[in-house]
Amino acid sequence: MRKENLVPVDQDRSRARDIGIRPGILQAGEFNGITDVPGVKVGHSTIRLGRDVRTGVTAILPHNGNTFRTKVPAGVYVGNGFGKLIGITQVQELGYLESPIVLTNTLSVWRAAEAVADFVLAQRGNEQVQSVNVVVGETNDGILNDIRRVHVEKAHVLEALTGASSGIVSEGSVGAGTGTVAFGFKGGIGTSSRLILHDDVRHSLGVLVQTNFGGLLVMDGLPIGRDLNHHFLDGNTGDGSVMIVVATDAPLDARQLTRLAKRAMLGISRTGSPIANGSGDYAIAFSVASLQNTTRTKDIHVRDLADDELTPMFQAAVEATEEAVYNSLLMATTTTGFKGVTIESLPLSVVERSMITHRYHSNSAFRRY
What we know:
By secondary structure, this protein is of the alpha+beta class. The chain has helices spanning 88-94, 109-121, 154-162, 224-228, 254-270, 311-331, 348-367; strands at residues 41-49, 53-61, 72-81, 96-97, 101-105, 135-139, 181-182, 185-186, 189-198, 201-212, 240-248, 279-287, 335-336, 342-343. The protein has a single domain, classed as L-amino peptidase D-ALA esterase/amidase. Strand 9 and strand 10 form a beta hairpin. It is globular and about 55 Å long.
């Protein structure tokens, strides 16, 4: 909620790299987003009605085709199970994804799941299909959104699905991130990517997050939350949720993708979250390796990665998740919603001042030795 000690900011926002925050050592992709993975598309439907409705839908499509007929290997990791991730057990049991992934708010997951099922069943070739496992995740946006009125309709879900595109992904207070709150500031949708070279083949890994969780915010190792005196012990339980979607074109099987999803949760930890008691924290990872050859030359035989070759992929997942969280905060805008509550965006001026202060002292200390 609005705090008097926050520095007022305008609504001009910047991504992490625009202000000098570049977590890790690996190179980002062209768009620095999940859409750097070939074929992956993202769509949003943003719902803002009157003073009380601030919610929406975000859809992630693994490829352009029929997701039921052309399944992709997938794995899920549960950081803390206080949530409603529909479709999780079949992904864990069979190790594949047969629908797009849709994110929305907590009380809209069932309506969204029905809409995704309709979307998949209506695809050409699925006329006789009698069962489909849809994957729908959520976070609770009830601070800014009149969540009990369930304003997400099937049409909103279909808008996100049919409007999904490649290229630059809209971030911040859009889609499923319209009404979310993270670290006591306005949260939202964020994305980032990393490139990994293996056997002269370049693989892409991208992450998209829906941030609605708490903790003591750390950005690129800098104690931003402490500098702002803004954290979960200051009237904020830290409860909430985060949904993490990891995509890659590296040839990984379901078991390896589960291991990759587990590492994405370390990226959340690096941002300062203790993974609170009331937080639903989930990561789902999938691979499109069997569908894409755009980053590989025809004379190179691409083989499945062995377990002892996965560490660079793990590093990429951690780095991209961390940066995606930062982008969700830095691109979000101050929002007033349900019952007149206002959640401020993370003040960029304070972040930049902390960066200058801490890095100056760090460099000064280094110069003394």
